[in-house]
């Protein structure tokens, strides 16, 4: 045995251990260094990813909020940033609604309108206290970015489109409740007057969902848009301005009848006073062009013995801009507002104002007979929906159609009474609608 070799082996072993430890230490340092670099790289990548997500979300908000749609003959909407919308508002093409990301929340708020109806059987003071507590939920009373652009948007729409005549409607309910009955009313307008322009004053339809509802008309080249109204602007310069100011402070009694309904009565008067044109309820079927009518209101009922009207209605209004009768209607609303009486701020309002003018009013306007807009009163409208079951009923349908083809411009369907009815095949309405529809999916 070589004792010399035996003495060397511990050194060799120790040397190997030292080399191994050094290698291990170096590997560990390299691993730690790699981990530190990886961590830094991952941190940078995470930061970049997060920034990209934020940018995309914010960019989507900007595009969605400040976009316009050019519709004319295009099949799909062209969305672009509205950095210089004045240069994009030419060529006679209208805007897509300028939505905000708040619209979905607003839609939910509007869909819960039942909670915004004042409690019954309470005192005036209790009702005002309830209203003050709910003020923040009445979104329609507040301004937003869309309402502030109302006047510019409506002027751009009416200026850029070649309008044979301008129609207005209001819609203060959720866009989800805009159904076939309302869709049919729009169809009848464009069937009878295809070159007309229709503006729907609505906070809920001025949205992505609202645009989808109206898109079938836009795709066919019809001129229609929904705009969020600026109530302060519409009421300015009338007694309704101070009334609305007090209402927004919670100092007015809203009444038991839904405030939305009464605001619709006022909005229609003010939009006609500001811009002039035709106002139609969303349950009105147009049968004949209104081009020949000017400064008209229709009688709902008449005493045929004296040939004098007994009640007027505000479901159809045709007036020039700044007509003095409209101003009287608006001021009457502000001075006599009562939210506890159905019709007090609507049909009864226009009736009492005109009644005070006497038989020879100094203001130039025309009262049309019931057959013009209200050929069936609210308590008889059911007959227009029913299918004839006997020979006698068939003759009645034929006779009614002949009568309506004469002096009738359209039919008010009295939605409050008829909303649950179906247009039955062969009925008066089925026959009329089939000749005054665009898509004809009723």
Structural features, described:
The protein folds into two domains: 65 residues; 351 residues, no CATH class. The strands form three sheets. It has a seven-stranded mixed beta sheet with strand order 5-4-3-6-9-8-10, sandwiched between helices. It has 442 residues and is α/β, with parallel strands linked by helices. Helix 9 packs parallel to helix 11, helix 10 packs antiparallel against helix 11 and helix 11 packs across helix 12. The chain is built from 17 helices and eleven strands.
State the shape.
globular
Low-confidence stretches: 1-31, 52-95
Radius of gyration: 33 Å
DSSP strand content: 5-15%
End-to-end Cα distance, whole Å, is 113 Å
Q: How many domains, as an integer?
A: 2
Total count of strands: 11
Number of helices: 17
Order of helices and strands: HEEHHHHEHEHEHHHEEEEHHEHHHEHH
Determine the oligomeric state from the structure.
single chain
Strand order of the largest sheet: 5-4-3-6-9-8-10
Q: What number is the mean pLDDT? A: 81
Q: Which class do the helix and strand fractions yield?
A: alpha/beta
Largest sheet features:
7 strands, mixed
What's the helical proportion of residues? 40-55%
């Amino acid at each position: 045995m070589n004792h010399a070799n035996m003495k060397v082996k511990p050194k060799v072993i120790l040397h190997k251990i030292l080399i191994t430890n050094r290698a291990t230490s170096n590997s560990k340092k390299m691993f730690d260094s790699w981990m530190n670099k990886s961590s830094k790289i991952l941190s940078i990548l995470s930061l970049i990813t997060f920034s990209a997500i934020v940018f995309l979300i914010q960019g989507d908000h900007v595009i969605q909020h400040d976009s316009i749609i050019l519709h004319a003959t295009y099949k799909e909407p062209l969305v672009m940033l509205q950095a210089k919308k004045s240069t994009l508002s030419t060529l006679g093409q209208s805007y897509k609604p300028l939505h905000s990301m708040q619209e979905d929340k607003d839609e939910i708020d509007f869909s819960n309108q039942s909670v915004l109806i004042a409690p019954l059987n309470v005192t005036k003071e209790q009702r005002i206290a309830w209203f003050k507590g709910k003020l923040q939920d009445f979104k329609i009373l507040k301004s937003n970015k869309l309402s502030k652009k109302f006047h510019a948007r409506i002027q751009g729409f009416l200026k850029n489109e070649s309008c044979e005549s301008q129609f207005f409607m209001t819609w203060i309910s959720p866009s989800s409740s805009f159904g076939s009955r309302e869709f049919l009313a729009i169809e009848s307008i464009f069937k009878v007057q295809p070159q007309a322009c229709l503006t729907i004053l609505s906070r809920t339809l001025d949205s992505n969902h609202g645009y989808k509802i109206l898109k079938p008309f836009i795709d066919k080249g019809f001129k229609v848009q929904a705009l969020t109204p600026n109530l302060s602007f519409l009421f300015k310069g009338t007694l309704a301005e101070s009334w609305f100011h007090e209402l927004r402070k919670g100092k007015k009694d809203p009444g038991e009848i839904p405030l939305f309904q009464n605001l619709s009565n006022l909005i229609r008067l003010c939009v006609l006073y500001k811009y002039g044109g035709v106002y139609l309820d969303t349950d009105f079927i147009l049968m004949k062009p209104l081009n020949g009518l000017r400064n008209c209101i229709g009688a709902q009922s008449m005493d045929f013995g004296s040939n004098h009207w007994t009640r007027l209605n505000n479901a159809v209004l045709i007036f020039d801009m700044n007509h003095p009768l409209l101003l009287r209607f608006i001021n009457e609303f502000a001075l006599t507002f009562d939210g506890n009486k159905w019709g007090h701020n609507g049909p009864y309002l226009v009736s009492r104002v005109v009644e005070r003018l006497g038989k020879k009013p100094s203001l130039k306007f025309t009262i049309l007979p019931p057959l013009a807009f209200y050929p069936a009163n609210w308590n008889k409208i059911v007959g227009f929906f029913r299918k004839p079951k006997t020979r006698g009923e068939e003759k009645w349908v034929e006779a009614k159609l002949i009568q309506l083809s004469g002096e009738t411009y359209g039919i008010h369907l009295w939605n409050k009474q008829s909303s649950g009815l179906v247009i039955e095949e062969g009925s008066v309405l089925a026959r009329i609608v089939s000749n005054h529809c665009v898509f004809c999916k009723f």
